[in-house]
Amino acid sequence: MGKPTGFMEYKREKPHEEPPKKRIKHFGEYGERFTDEQLKVQGARCMDCGTPFCHMGIEIRGVAAGCPIQNVIPEWNDLVYRGQWKDALDRLLMTNNFPEFTGRVCPAPCESSCTLAISEPAVAIKGIERSIIDKGFEEGWITPRIPKTRTGKKIAIVGSGPAGLTAADDLNQDGHQVTVFERDDRPGGLLMYGIPSMKLDKDVVLRRVHLLSQEGIQFIVNCEIGKDRTLDELKEEFDAVILCVGAQRQRVLHLPGDDADGIIPAMTYLSSTTKSLLDGEKKAPIDVKGKHVLVIGGGDTGADCVATALRQKCKSVVQFGKHPRLGNDRDNDHMWPADPGIFKMDYAYEEAEAVTGKDPREYLIQTKRIEKDASGKVTALHTIEMDKVMGEDGFHYFREIPGSERVWLADVVFVAIGFEGIDLEVTEGTDLELSSNRIRASRTSYATNLPGVFTAGDARRGQSLVVWAIKEGKEAAQKVNTYLVKEKVAI
Ligand SMILES: Cc1cc2nc3c(=O)[nH]c(=O)nc-3n(C[C@H](O)[C@H](O)[C@H](O)COP(=O)(O)OP(=O)(O)OC[C@H]3O[C@@H](n4cnc5c(N)ncnc54)[C@H](O)[C@@H]3O)c2cc1C
Ligand code: SF4
């Protein structure tokens, strides 16, 4: 432990963020890394607890607590406090393939589980993680690690999101020849075409893809398995296949008027905006400048739509959520070290408040119908407010409040009400078994019902987080490696 009294002497700081009113003028990243001096001070706040819940990644009462990939946080906190940056980097990379992604976009369950968070603001773990890896790249310490020997085994990975990239990285380092197939025109999955560039600069994603290519991984883009090539062909050509296809099939509204022009799935908006920025187009295909924007769905995808609409200078933006506003304090269902489940101001809401003077979120709102004009264009949403009440059976229910009907002007409506499961193309003509719209595979084996075919990430667990996709990619890679070694022994 670097400084035993650090947690009493120093306050938690966030890495510098560009002020909301300035940053909404562009799509560049709004966050920076800690300076070296800040990094030391923030590292010194770690208490090096005997039982560091921050790195455990366990489930407590059904809720995940701590870092899912078991980053050995107290160790790198101590190393940065001592200024041993390179050692901190090596320690970080032992557990996390891509800290430059998690250090920018992870919701940091580690910080909820930090012991200091019981009574004080948690150690700034995520900011420290980002700073270690960013410094590593700046100093030129991250260089291609080209495997010295090759096993002769060939692996196909379908999907290049964080699960696919992690599995590809680990299996390539094991000496296997890895090919990644991606239906989009650029690799990265939701790192590329989901999470907006102000949170995660696309050059950061492409830098990693370039590194992986230099290390020997082959990327084939614009190739959809199930359409351009079949799963059966891959099984024939490769010794093992891992399906990391995500769970990007979006839920749709089933409401009167939902066929109106201007009702747009959130992912269509987010991905087309990023693509047009990357392609250098002057105007995005969906541009909400001067328009009244409504977002249906109170989650993070909806928040990203709010932030994107603000950058395009929308006239107004409101986000509807079905659930009540979270409280300011932990309740009994969210005791430490689990996620506190409390009210937060995401980056998008800070920005909306700075521009309009108001948090854009409306809680406990149910959309009842969509109004359109004679040309079929959306003009308004009709809503009703709800109550969340506990029934006699002990379960919570939503109840409409009579007389709370309201009409909201809308030029564009983004639908961000979650994801149903995998896109089904990859299953075309196969006997691949699904379960609740996800690919069926156990958490321990990652093996599907088809011999030699594995799955990991959102495709197996449903829409989740980058850090869980990395964990699943790592564990699936281990299982595939064992499978290939066994196969070799059997031969
Ligand atoms: C808008 C949005 C914002 C998010 N923000 C955050 C965040 O801030 N922090 C966080 O931790 N998580 C966030 N998430 C969740 C996170 O991005 C996902 O959990 C994670 O990317 C899942 O990784 P994955 O590799 O399993 O799948 P994905 O990232 O979905 O990648 C799957 C890939 O497979 C490809 N594919 C699918 N079918 C085929 C096929 N048949 N042939 C070839 N390729 C195919 C897809 O094109 C895609 O590239 C966000 C999600 C969304 C939608
Ligand atoms: S990956 Fe996420 S949970 Fe793990 S240390 Fe980083 S920010 Fe925390």
From TrEMBL:
Residues of the signal peptide: none
Pfam families reported for this sequence: Fer4_20, Pyr_redox_2
Region annotation Disordered: where it falls in the sequence: 1-21
Organism superkingdom: Bacteria
Pathway terms, separated by semicolons: Amino-acid biosynthesis
Domain FAD/NAD(P)-binding: residue ranges: 154-473
PANTHER family from the UniProt entry: GLUTAMATE SYNTHASE [NADPH] SMALL CHAIN (PTHR43100:SF1)
Protein name: Glutamate synthase subunit beta
